[in-house]
Amino acid sequence: MSKSIIEIQDLHKQFGNVEVLKGIDLVVKESEKVVILGPSGSGKSTLLRCINYLEYPTQGSVKINGNAFEDKNRKNQEKHIALLRTEVGMVFQKFNLFHHLTALGNVMAALVTIKGLSKVEAKQIAEFNLEKVGLLEKAKNYPSQLSGGQQQRVAIARALAMDPKVMLFDESTSALDPELVGEVLRVIRGLAEDGMTMVLVTHEMKFAKDVADRIVFMDNGVIVEDSPPEVFFNNPSTERAKQFIMQEDY
Amino acid sequence: MTIHFGRAFSELAPSLFDALKTVTLLAILAFALALMIGMLIAVGRISGNKILDRFLIVLLEIIRGTPLLVQLLYVYYVVPELISFVVSFFVPDFHMNFGAFEAGVIGLGINYGCYMSEIFRSSILAIDKGQNEAALALGYTKHQALRKIIFPQSIRISLPALGNYLVMLLKDTSLCAFITLGEIILTTQSYAAQTFLTIESYTIAALVYLVACIPLGYLVRVLERRVTKYV
Ligand SMILES: Nc1ncnc2c1ncn2[C@@H]1O[C@H](COP(=O)(O)OP(=O)(O)OP(=O)(O)O)[C@@H](O)[C@H]1O
Ligand SMILES: [Mg+2]
Hints:
The structure holds 2 protein chains of 2 kinds.
Chain A: E1 4-15, E2 18-29, E3 33-37, H1 44-51, E4 59-64, E5 67-68, H2 77-85, E6 88-91, H3 103-113, H4 119-132, H5 148-161, E7 166-170, H6 178-193, E8 197-201, H7 205-211, E9 214-219, E10 222-227, H8 229-234, H9 239-248
Parallel strand pairs in A: 3-8, 3-9, 6-7, 7-8
Antiparallel strand pairs in A: 1-2, 1-4, 4-5, 9-10
Helix pairs in contact in A: 3-4, 3-5, 4-5, 5-6
Chain B: H1 5-46, H2 50-64, H3 68-87, H4 100-125, H5 129-137, H6 142-172, H7 185-195, H8 198-227
Helix pairs in contact in B: 1-2, 1-4, 1-8, 2-4, 3-4, 4-6, 5-6, 6-8, 7-8
Bound molecules: adenosine-5'-triphosphate and magnesium ion.
């Protein structure tokens, strides 16, 4: 039995009076690929953002590699959360590369500031990861000099360089022109083949089907189905999932 | 009436350009102080502490609601008196004074710091929230994200406006003539009074400022183009 990288227990999240997540339980094992599907507003992004505590849950617990984000007895809560976040790589829809740094600078920054590596060591690791996403020759370019697809690949390299236990992708290709989607999906697929543990929110149904070990289907703040892709796409057990698959007509 | 521009220039200009050194130093020190004060106020106001924010707003209203000249007079004449008054309760016969230069640096620094804080604040708020989130997701603390990711970008955004403030500050040092720091203005006045070369004297004084401000403005624009290239 492989170990659990993410353990979510009874997770609730409320914005004001609106409960967006209504009790989520989810375990992701080492090197598992979990794709989260669901209609707009069902809480997919919120769930992903709770996994690295960009949103603090209203109730429930999130553990990464056995470490809980929150612990009443702990003194320096912010520092601990920051530390635990280094184990969770996140790739955003809008890339969010640091505008004032080159591609290389983007990948190096946290290695130096957070991991305390020397510039030389950081550069080595950064170059290795840029190579991995096929962008070593763009190392000196600023984000504004890169295409959307290239920016997203740098963002992936930046997250990978921290050597995370798990990678989260929130619609990482939906801000891209259609002809640039492929190059980013190829990189993500490569990671999957390397055995990276991943949780992905995506609208690319074919990709989801190919890459996922499990499909988690959310609706209205709860997990409605959690099954292998063959089962989910061919034989969904709920009416809601059936409708969703028909609408997406992949 | 004849214009004796050549004579006035040879007699007055050297001492004015000499005085310009003091004025430039005054402007640079006041600007450095203003940068610090402006940054602190901006950070204080976005910190989310309501009481601190209120307090700073009141401070800003006071500074914006009174003339710079009055503030300079206040720092030079009143503040030392007030400090002396308070401290004399503990230390008998205590008395302090500011030199005109120190008072000028403090007065101009506070005034410009308050105006510049608004530039810092809006430029920090102008940075996309995604930048902060990306930093947090990589393991930065809020403080580290602000210092390493947000500030460097917001400084670039605020640079053009800051440059303009530096030029304005250099010109506003002339108000320090009212607190006896009159290298340029007072020298000009007394020369004009002695020689009756009014037109020449004040024209030369204006030229001295112009000669200082035009290259400075140019420098600021060059710098601005360089650092904003990729933002
Ligand atoms: N910061 C916030 N404040 C208030 N409401 C929020 C906030 N973030 C999200 N919500 C609300 O929570 C609900 C779930 O949002 P979420 O972004 O998680 O949905 P989603 O499943 O990712 O949708 P989409 O497919 O459109 O990205 C939505 O109704 C949204 O309006
Ligand atoms: Mg979303």
